[in-house]
Structure formats: C-alpha cells, structure tokens
Design brief:
The chain is α/β, with parallel strands linked by helices. Helices cover 43% and strands 11% of the residues.
Length: 495
C-alpha cells in the first residue's frame, strides 16, 4: 500500500499568513521520503526522539505525517513507549488513524529506515523546507495585503518584519541552550571586560553617581521600572538621564514617548542641557544669548538620540521599532514613557491582564535585544490616602502585580517637599531633595540614592553640582565664536 497522495495546497505552518495558492505548475518545497524516514526512525529507536526535539508537526508537508508526529510527541511528553503499536493505539483513541493513512502505512514507515544515524540531519532538512513554504506563504500574503486599499503601509511593514524576525523561534531552529564550557568562557570574557572599565560599572550608566554606585549601571537584558505619582518628575528623571547619556557618555539612546511629542521632549532636553528656564523656552521669551546657547547645545548636535512619539503604540510595533533601533543604530538602552499607555492589539481580557502581557513582553524584549529597557509607570492613588510620609511601596504599582514580578529593578521617585515635608529625618531641609528608592533590585542591594531636583529646569542632578560654584556652563559659546560668551554679570545672562 502506498502512502497518501500529495496535495498542492499550502497549510500555514505558523504565524499570521493566510492560506494561498501556489503559482501554477510549481510544487511546494518538500521531501516526502525524508519525512517518512524521520517518522520511521522515531518509532524504531528511542534516541532518535531526543535528536529531533526541535521538530514540530507543522514542519511536515503531508497532513498524515503531521498527525503521526503529533501522536509521537504526545506519547513522548507523557513518557510512554513510542513504537509502531503505541502510535497506532494512540491514533485509534483519537479517531485519527484513517487520517494518518491507516495502521499498514504506519507499519510500513518503520520498514523504510535501517537506523536513526542520520535522523537529525534529515529533520533539519525538513525544517528548512518548512521555512521555505512559510516564506512562500508570507510573500503571497504581503502581496495580497499590498493590493488592498485599506492596508496601512507602515503597519504592513511592521507586521512583515516582526513575522520574519520571529521565524527562527517559530520554526524551532533557535539554539536555546549552551553547554558549561561555552557559558564559562562567556562569563570570563564579561568579567575581563568589566575589569578594564575605570568607572566600576558593568552596565549602562544612569549619569547619577549615587545611583550608579548601587546598581553598577543598568544591566543588559534587564527590565527597569521607574515609578512615581504624577508630579514627582518621572519624565524629568529619564530626560535628565538621557541628556547625560547622549552628551557626556555618547551612548545611543532610543525613546518611545507616548505622552509627549518629540518637540516637547526636545524642548525639555534643551532646558536640562543649557539650564535655561523651561517655561521661558516654551513661551519664546529668551534673550539672543540664550538662543545662541540653545543653538550650540550638545543635544542639538548629537545623532545618537532616536525618538519615536507614535501615539497609541502597540507592543508589537514597539518591539519591531526597538529592534530596528538596536540593529541599525547600535542603541544601547530603550526608554518608554510610559508603560500604562502601551496597548496590545486585539486583547480581550481585563486591564490587569493587558498590563501583565505588556510587562512580560517588555522583559522578553530586553532579553532578546540584550539591552536595558526602562519603563515609566504610574502608582495607584492609594499612596495619597496613606498617612505618614507617603513613601511608595511595591504594592502601589498600578493595575498589575505582574510589573513587580517581571521587573529586575523597581525604582521609586519620591520628593518629600511635594507632600509639604520640610525636613528630612536628619533635620536637613528637604527643599530640592529627591530620593531614588530601589525597592527591588534582583542582582544587587536595596538602597536609596539622594538626588537634587531643580524645578525651573525640570532637571535631576547629583547632590553636588559643578555649576553651584559658578563654573562655566559647557553649552556657552566659546571665545572664538562671533558673539563670544555671555559676559559675567551681564543683564541677560541666564545664570
């Protein structure tokens, strides 16, 4: 009895592409003989199962082979014997024996292979052919959507790029484990690289020395949550950090601003960098000298800052765009303002489940891109109703406990003067004092970094500022420029 007849229909192997028809006269990439050999080897010798653990039923071309391999996988998962008789029995129980080609065909598969010596090599070929079929489907789907008038061009590009990027994972080709030797060599290399750094950091610096001494920098692959109540200065905090990363450390930074436009964000960065009152910049009530400061600002001359202010951003769009930033521009840190404004397209659950999905996706994104992902988050109103000094706690994270679970670092911003607390615990004035409270630090200690908040510049800084002593601001024009630096004591000197 011969095997099942071939068909020209393409079944979707994984992902979103719909079923399409092939060009007339062309046969989809396939290797029926290898599929038979792999199935036969799996039922003949137990070691073969471990060698093809990356295979999935959808990798097979024949529908009957998909059904047979699915039965084999189910037996293997339950630690039951896998042979011709157990597979037939399993398919009988499921009512799928005839769909699989019958008992005789399954028995015939075991007679077509002598050993499992080359089973892994054969399985790799089957997987590669499945990928080719998937790409054919994907190309047809892209063409079909491209002809539709209602299709958004950029959404189509994002969908296609994301689908292609996830192909290896979907097809089971990605190596998901490493041996001890490889891990040891990688660890030693990382340690050696850290030994050469003079700043003592192992990750991306925040720019705040007191905070960096606790965290040793934001670590690659970590999800960091910066949380606070409205008005505490969450956006000011990350923009102060961005300004230092871009101008001082020259580290490429990617920002997804869901709340502010790119123009508003840039204006804030100008104020932080030049220390010109942000309100005056907004109103345009600045002097010519101050305008010159803005024009000569390091922020405006750097090409290592990448801002996306797309409203109503979807988590899939963010993943695609972040991946592009890292691959094309070498971005080393991703910042999101803020987490609760992100969406999941097609989500049907409650808000808490949606936030949990977003949180898991951000953590996965950090691991995938091997860069720190910093997300701002709102705190619940419970902080305001609580007595005492109203310092935030992990339970105050809004809408989902998954944020606390997924985050590697949770940092709360707290300014005592916001709650009319005029003195700190040691009696010193609280004016301009901000606390960065590390309430969770998976790979380090819990501590509090004290910072300075300068309201008129919407800026955070270390408690010691070199400009307090009247030093020259780095954004001032140099002596050899046409108009020269602002003269000390001049009426229009913003400092």
């Amino acid at each position: 009895m011969s095997g099942p007849k071939t068909t020209l229909a393409i079944r979707r192997t994984s992902g979103p592409p719909r079923n399409t028809t092939l060009e007339l006269g062309k046969l989809p990439p396939q290797a029926i003989d290898l599929e038979e050999a792999v199935l036969g080897a799996c039922m003949l010798e137990k070691p073969a199962l471990a060698q093809v653990d990356f295979l999935k039923p959808d990798h097979f071309y024949h529908e009957s082979h998909k059904v047979i391999f699915q039965a084999i996988r189910e037996l293997m998962i339950k630690s039951e014997p896998v042979d011709m008789r157990t597979v037939v029995s399993k398919l009988k129980q499921q009512g799928k024996l005839e769909m699989a080609g019958g008992a005789y065909y399954i028995a015939e598969l075991t007679s077509k292979v002598a050993s499992s010596a080359n089973v892994e090599y054969h399985a790799r070929i089957i997987t590669e052919l499945a990928i080719k079929r998937f790409l054919i489907n994907l190309g047809s789907e892209i063409a079909q959507r491209g002809y539709e008038d209602t299709t958004d061009t950029f959404e189509l590009m994002d969908w296609a790029e994301t689908t292609l990027y996830n192909l290896h994972g979907d097809m089971g080709m990605r190596i998901e484990y490493k041996d001890g030797l490889t891990l040891g060599l990688e660890a030693i290399q990382t340690i050696q690289e850290r030994m050469t750094r003079k700043d003592g950091l192992s990750g991306v610096p925040s720019g705040f020395s007191t905070l960096d001494r606790i965290t040793h920098g934001w670590q690659p692959g970590e999800m960091i949550v910066i949380a606070a109540r409205p008005g505490m200065g969450k956006t000011s905090f990350i923009l102060s950090m961005v300004e230092m990363l871009v101008t001082m450390f020259e580290i490429p930074v990617g920002i997804f601003s869901l709340e502010m436009t790119s123009l508003e964000l840039t204006t804030r960065l100008f104020s932080i960098n030049t220390e010109i009152d942000s309100e005056r910049i907004k109103k345009g009530s600045i002097s010519n000298i101050e305008l010159k400061l803005l024009m000569n600002s390091k922020v405006s001359s750097k090409k290592n800052l990448f801002v996306d202010d797309t409203p109503s951003l979807d988590i899939n769009q963010l993943r695609t765009k972040a991946r592009r930033m890292v691959e094309r521009h070498g971005v080393r840190i991703i910042l999101l303002d803020y987490l609760q404004l992100l969406k999941i397209t097609g989500h049907t659950g409650n808000r808490e489940q949606e936030i949990a999905g977003i949180s898991r996706s951000l953590k996965a994104l950090a691991k995938e891109l091997k860069v720190p992902v910093i997300a701002l988050s709102q705190l619940s109103r419970g902080v305001e109703t609580r007595g005492g000094d109203k310092r935030p706690m992990l339970s105050d994270l809004r809408e989902s406990g998954a944020i606390e679970q997924d985050a590697d670092v949770v940092c709360f911003l707290y300014r005592p003067e916001y709650y009319k607390i005029h003195n700190l615990e040691d009696g010193t004035p609280s004016q301009g004092v901000a606390e960065a409270i590390l309430a969770k630090n998976r790979n380090g200690r819990l501590d509090t970094a004290y910072l300075r908040f300068i309201g008129k510049f919407t800026k955070f800084a270390d408690m010691e500022s070199r400009f307090d002593a009247g030093e020259r601001h780095p954004s001032w024009p140099t002596e050899d420029q046409s108009q020269g630096p602002p003269p000390p004591g001049a009426d229009d000197n913003p400092f």
